[in-house]
Sequence to fold (453 residues):
Amino acid sequence: MSQPDEVLDCRGQRCPLPVIELARRLPEVPVGGVLRVLADDPAAAGDIPAWCRLRDQEFLGEVTVDEGSAFDVRRRH
Amino acid sequence: MAHPGYFDAAAAAPLHPAAREALIASLTDGWADPEKLYTQARRARQLLDAARGATAEVVGVRPDEVFFCASGTVACRLAVLGTLRARRRAGATLIHSSVEHSAVLGAAQSHVESGGTALPIPVDRLGRVDLTEFAATLATPGVAAAALMSANHEVGTAQPVEAAARLCAGSAVPLYVDAAQSLGRMPIPPGWSVLTGSAHKWGGPAGVGVLAVRLGEPWAARWTPPGPEEGSPALPAIVAAAASLRAAAAEADAEAARLRPLVARIRATVAATVPDVEVVGDPDDRLPNLVTFSCLYVDGEALLHELDRRGFAVSSGSSCTASTLRPSHVLEAMGVLSHGNVRVSLHRESTEEEVDRFLAELPGVVAELRAHVVGL
Fold:
């Protein structure tokens, strides 16, 4: 598992907050960089890939880390 | 217009006038126990038989193949578990689409808890079941029954029932179709073995489920009809359900022709006037009266409450509050946004003016809810 460029901790946040945080933070990551979103809301597993599809960003997948579930997103543009 | 702004027919349609009339008449005339042998009972029995006949005609089965039960959920349960019981010599596996109604999934879960197997079949982005996967799973050993809904209750997408029925026939596996959203609204494709419906979805009273079983099919020789443990039938409600089903079926084509353009207008207008919105479900092959969309960055329940405040009753598959733990399994299975979700389902009283008022107010409501989300 490759290391992300930045980690965003959205644990404890309910939908749609993790997606809102993701939309705010991704522009701060360089193009080609990876943002890891830590989220424990059950909606995040569906909403983060759906957001990537709608925003033409690359969803790399769900990973399990020490803190729990995480979702890696690569900034495409 | 009796119910302005009520857009949740997929949960419960306003009572059809034919149901109201029949309900009042049969409350006066059909209160006796139809199983007894005196005059009052015979009258009740006649009403029940007439209701069965009318329902059978709409569904396209013989009257003795129709069973009434206490709700749509009970009908789903009897359909799933009854079919599996009749087929237990063939195996213990149920296959079903991943977007079935929770009543069907609940019955599947009971089957699993009693030692059986349930295999969900994935759907595509539009919510349509993957027929290749359906066929491959059907061919595995021990498949006793298949369940595929006629059209999805959350996103409106029609399922390829006819094609699935052909596959099932080829494997001699009975197909159960949950037709809750289609009965009285659109034709049910042929080829099914078991079918269920729920009266309050077509304008009948709540508390009546319909179960139809094609008893002439070989597997049905082992079918056990629902027994006395299912309780006495609510005769006046059944009579009202049958009367409204017949009325709804008779006006279904005209209603579909009237509602389809309104649904198309909602799809097009929402996409054009609300930024960052995803309209979900198949645009064409769908229920005539239902449309669903998700608004990015919006809490679905907040949206629902704000619309309610403005006089619109809609439903949401979102789970942004602590009261519900999981988002809609349908939206999840389709891989579409689950937050900011709104389902609009129209009915025979819905008007163009109401829809236009909704479309005029929605962009402002969404913008207001997004206003406090800064930095986007």
Chain A touches chain B through 17 residues (CB under 8 Å). Helices of chain A lie at 17-25, 44-55. The mean pLDDT of chain A is 94.
